[in-house]
Amino acid sequence: MRLLDRYLIREILPYVATVFFLLTAVIFIHEAGRFSELFVVFARRGLSSTPLVKLVLSLLPGIVIFTLPIAFLVGVTMAMGRLSGDREIVALQAGGVGRWALLRPPLLVGIAVTGITGYNTFYLLPTAVKSLNQLKKTRSELLLRSIETYIKPGTFTEDLPGKILYVDRSDGEGKWQRIFIAETSSQPNEEPKIYSAESGQIIIGRTLQDSELRLEKARVYGQESRQPDEVAGYFVNASGSLTASFALGKDDGDPDLQAPPPGPELLAFPDLWRFKPSSPAQARAAATEIHKRMALPAACLIFALFGVVLGVTTLRSGRSGGLLIGIMLALAFYLLMLGGERAARSGALPVALAVWLPNLLFLGLAGVMSGGIGQWIRRWTVWNWFWQGGRWVWELTLYIGRRLWRRTSDTNLPDWLARGTAAAFSAPRVRLGFPRIVDGLIFREAVGAFLLVLLGLVGIFHVFTLFELINSIVQNRIGFGIVAGYLLFLTPQILNYMLPFAVLVATLVTLGLLAKSAQLVVLYASGQSLYRLSLPLFLGGGLAALLMVSLQEFVLPVSNPRQDYLRYQIRGGTLPPQTFHQKNRKWFRGRDHRIFNFAVFDTERNEFTSFGMYELHPTTARLVSRTYAAKARWDAVTEEWVLTNGWRRTFPADGLESQRQPIGELRLKLAETPDYFRQSTTDITKMSIGQLQQQVAELTAQGLDVENLQRAIQVKIAAPLACFIMVLVGIPFALTVGRRGAMVGIAIGIGLAVAFWGTVNLFEQLGYYRLLPLFWSAWGPNLLFGSGGLYLLLSAKT
Fold first, then answer.
1. How confident is the model at residue 696 (pLDDT cuts 50, 70, 90)?
2. Which residues are CB-contacts of 686 (< 8 A; sequence separation ≥ 6)?
3. pLDDT over 90 percentage in the chain
4. Taking the CB of residue 412, how many other CB atoms lie within 10 A of it?
5. Residues 6 or more apart whose Cβ sits within 8 Å of residue 3
6. pLDDT confidence band for 375 (50 / 70 / 90)
7. Looking at residue 614, what DSSP letter applies?
8. Structural contact between residues 474 and 345, judged by C-beta atoms closer than 8 angstroms
């Protein structure tokens, strides 16, 4: 290769690698969080680490197929933006370098990226999906091996495959009192089989098959049809002692943790090519999968052409402009790709046209831009829109202010209003030493980097989410409004998750650029201290922390239940339950020794769908009665629950004979009102600190274990302070690597963020299994990283 080729490739590769590791690390941490409990299980049990390695390797292909093409497009646009901003492209063209010479190096890198992406889509991804599905099944087995520490008295355990376990009391030595087990049925019209026992314990064997649950003074109540007039065989078995095994079956839990049904997506490319569909819909799905696996790698070559055309014709704002435009183009491409895939699977467009349409559009746009339209695009860049729009709004505001003043006041216009924009910023004001001009400079640079990273990651997360749900959207015929609503209500959770990372990157980039350009040396020479220069950064961290507090206390308790609801609607195509663990049916512990389960609770109409109630004996835990109703609504006038279209079975104290009575309409006066079912959820993301404290007080009065809720309160308090910690850690690292540039700072930020979030998840799981005290499980990561950052900051040259 020529010297120019090597130079351009060395310019492109660092940007591609940095963006790739940034996106992959952030999305991987989010995806791996669902399996974080396995790390503690393996460490506690001393099990082989092979499944954990398989977990990491199984998650990566599904992420890399999305992040590598985006990283390549963003990396090329950033590199070309830097060359264009420094006028190096102008110098090269003046020296006789043509566009083909500028295109050849990105194209060589693009060929390598195309090869990696193609191999990933053709072979690695189907194998990884199969392996991940197997790990999802293994997850239940591994959790069973730590069940003796996982069970919390007074709470439901829903991670056992096909079973719901409730333990009322524990003697602290592994033996439980008053046990209730519901074995869910694969038939939608059957009530679960019920096990009740006065006492019992789990015996963990060397393998899953050797493990068993031993129940004393136990009874077994058979499954029963939910139809009120259907006669079905029913039995009650008073065995005295009972041993139950844990055979792995279908997990009725979170759809995100279930293995999808077999389909073309799980086949390697040779098998997919030979695949014989059994229906027209399956034929469209197979054809769409074939074209998608070819179109996505081919897009990398188009990205190379597009990046060079942008650099030659439009980009003059350097790397930041290249980063912004690259992210916007990547989001636009993947949105078009998702829309085309949906149109192909639904039959709205021919498969080949729908899947390849984004590639054709980008190729055509690159050709048009290279033909002279670049000057027009440069004149109307995003930055120019914002600047011109802001000036127009300011001038319009001043004009309206002058007109209103003249109409409502007899005095002359104030000088600042009469002279306009320039006078508004030069009006005299009191100076207290803050903010100074340098404070404004640092704060603006930090805010710009912060917003760029935050908005870019939010957009990429949205596209990744659509990429993950596209099959469900097409199969369940989900409308645009539901998908848009889900992304809207998902955004606050993503913002809350990404705020500390955006603060860290903004700190590293801002101080890194000041150090690289020697502006810090000038500021030091003028008498400015590093601690004084850091003040606007800490101010920005404080504002980000306040934003996190506002999201946690006011927005997330409203948005998270709604986005859970919409996600279940997308995944299942039916109305989802409102549940903490996201199961197919919600289970509640009621008052007066009752247990409830239901499919859906309409909080506006106070109405249950598929309502079940189990009354237990206060000492022996035997079943006194079980009731089922298709509907149960609250009568506010009589303050009663009205059950319709169901049945009620009662069990006498002595003897095993039971009586079943059909229900046309039954009124029950229970201690549980609609407010009880609204407030009983204990999901930290759906409750404010005040609601959690109220929950702790109520459960403490009932003598139940509230350590998890107390930990949740501490985590909610500690989480926003992570923004301060990120500033504290970022300042010394920015000074250390600052002379190497902003991209090195971003790379360091990726490593620090991965380490911090990994530590947070580890401490959270250690606290959940009570291997760490409550305080350290919530505050440990902040204290660990905060003390390290403070030491480095105090050791830095000021």
1. confident
2. 556, 557, 560, 561
3. 10
4. 10
5. none
6. very low
7. E
8. yes
Query: What is the end-to-end Cα distance of the chain in Å, rounded?
Result: 46
Give the model's pLDDT for residue 543.
93
Cβ atoms 114, 303 nearer than 8 A = no
611: enclosing H helix or E strand: strand 607-616
pLDDT of amino acid 553: 87
Rounded average pLDDT over 7-33: 82
Task: Retrieve residue 675's tokens.
Answer: 């407010």
Buried b (16+ CB within 10 A) or exposed e, 578-603: bbbbbbbbbbbbbeebbbbbbbbbee
DSSP string, 638-655: TTEEEEEEEEEEE--SSS
Distance between CA atoms of 208 and 44, rounded to whole angstroms?
A: 17
> What size, in residues, is the chain?
798
CB 92 within 8 A of CB 102: yes
Angle, in degrees to the nearest 10, between helices 480-516 and 437-475: 150
Contacts of 247 (CB under 8 A, 6+ apart): none
DSSP state of 576: P
pLDDT of residue 219: 85
Strand partners, 644: 631, 665
- Bin 473: left if φ > 0, else alpha if -120 < ψ < 50, else beta: alpha
Provide CB contacts within 8 A for 51, sequence distance 6+.
38, 42, 135, 138, 142
Backbone angles phi, psi at 644, to 5 degrees: -135, 145
Q: Is the pLDDT of residue 260 over 60?
A: no
268-295: per-residue pLDDT in tens?
888 888 888 888 888 888 888 889 889 9
Q: Provide the percentage of residues in the chain whose pLDDT is more than 70.
A: 73
Q: Tell me what the mean pLDDT of segment 93-113 comes to.
A: 85
Cβ–Cβ < 8 Å for 72, 303: yes
Q: Tokens for 342, please give them.
A: 């949906």
Question: φ, ψ for residue 621 (rounded to 5)?
Answer: 65, 10
| Helix/strand/coil for 398 | helix
Residue of 559 and 137 predicted with greater confidence: 559
Mean pLDDT taken over the chain: 77
Helix 480-516 / helix 3-32 crossing angle, nearest 10 deg: 130
Beta-bridged to residue 214, according to DSSP, are: 201, 243
Q: Would you say residue 178 has pLDDT above 60?
A: yes
**Among candidate residues 479, 487, 651, the one with its CA nearest the CA of residue 562:** 487
- Cα–Cα distance, 151 to 177 (Å, whole number): 12
Strand pairing partners for 589? 595
Task: Return all residues near 482 (Cβ < 8 A) that are at least 6 apart.
Answer: 566, 569, 570
Give bridge partners of residue 181 from the DSSP assignment. Answer: 165, 195
Give me the residues paired with residue 668 across strands.
Answer: 641
| Beta pairing partners, 200 | 176, 215
In this structure, what token pair is assigned to residue 71?
């990283």
Tell me the C-alpha distance between 532 and 546, whole Å: 22
331-355 exposure pattern, b = at least 16 Cβ within 10 A, e = fewer: bbbbbbbbbbbbbbbbeeeebeebb
Identify the pLDDT of residue 3: 86
Residue 439: HSE in the Cβ half-sphere, 13 Å Cα cutoff: 12
Q: Are 175 and 199 in contact (CB under 8 A)?
A: yes
42 and 50 Cβ atoms separated by less than 8 Å: no
- Integer Cα distance of 573 and 472 in angstroms: 8
Distance of alpha carbon 763 from its chain centroid, rounded?
19
Tokens 């990396």, residue? 75
Q: Is the dihedral of CA 390, 392, 398, 400 positive or negative?
A: negative
Torsion angle in degrees (nearest 10) through CA of 463, 723, 453, 27: -30
Buried/exposed code over 96-134 (b: 16+ C-beta within 10 A; e: otherwise): eeeeeebbbbbbbbbeebbebbbebbbebbbebbbbbbe
Q: Which range, of 257-266, 307-316, 321-330, 476-485, averages the lowest pLDDT? A: 257-266
DSSP letter assigned to residue 688: -
Q: Convert the pLDDT of each residue in 560-592 to its tens digit.
A: 878 877 887 787 644 333 333 334 467 888 877
